[in-house]
Amino acid sequence: MKKATLSEIYTCCRTAGRWLRRLLLLPALLWSAGLWYYQPVSLFIPIITIILWLLLHRRRTELALWCSVLLSVIFYLILPGPQPQAWQTPWAKAPRFELNGDRLTIHNLRDFRYRSENDFDPIWRTEHYDLSTLIGADFAECHWDGMEAICHTMMSFAFADGKHLVISAETRLPEGEAQSAIGGLYKRYGLLYVFGTEEDIFALRTNFRHEDLLLIPMKIKPQGARNMLMHFIEQAQQTEEQHTAYNTVANNCSSGVMRTFRHLAPDMPRYYDLAPIHNGSISQLLFKHGALITRPNESYNALRKRCYLRYDISPNSPEKYSEAIRTKINQ
Fold first, then answer.
1. Which of 56, 245, 278, 310 could staple 60 via S-S, CB 3.0–4.6 A?
2. H helix runs in the chain, sequence order
3. Which residue has the higher pLDDT, 4 or 164?
4. pTM more than 0.85
């Protein structure tokens, strides 16, 4: 068999590289087109591309297109997060925090009361928590439309006096804006860490949206729960100060959860950082590493079945909602 010469190997590699470059160009252009559509201020980029193409006498089309992609990436990176005149009511106010020793005060705690998903009394209040009485945390995941791989993830922190504090990282929509998974790739929406009550954040999903919510107790000591809560507060403050944009893939409802888990367990395998992309697997990862409270010989599927909350839990007694869901889990 004749051995290939260095020249032939070089030619082969160059040809493969050219085809790979062309193969990558299509998705890159599709992403750029999405940017031009969802951020109309970026429409100067295709105009520059056309001018460049004409200056190259229409010979270097591929070069002009890659220049367009590069300009789109640069524009996206320097594009600030949205700062609209007004946010939609569920995300109108960002939480504010005061910490004095063990006393945590949260302003703009969300505690809406619902008649239907879109008919509610917007209640924002100030609540005080004694961190020395923090006793644990629960992991919540919410599914809709029968999707198992994708969910909305939340955390609920329990205090000895019966209070429960929910943290839910959510898409913050400007007034008049409808949410879109594709639009979420292009800094159209903000990201807000909502701090609220279970009677609002959870009951909205079980009692009014009729979504599939699971509430799974975590195996965590009070100090670990406190560290987790403080890390979420830090993330919430940074997100608000920096006007952080929501991103469907890179900065969604589960990204902060996984960053907090890594903060508490820095030796966690690096590929776990990809979990927010398929966040329906997060509870299984927690089960695998013994981070969830289970009964003797209880399987993961049995745990999920037990921690699944039915619809319309205590619909007429919102003040007993937290008691009702935990009665269901402990049956």
1. 56
2. 6-38, 44-55, 61-78, 198-203, 222-241, 255-264, 282-288, 300-306, 321-329
3. 164
4. yes
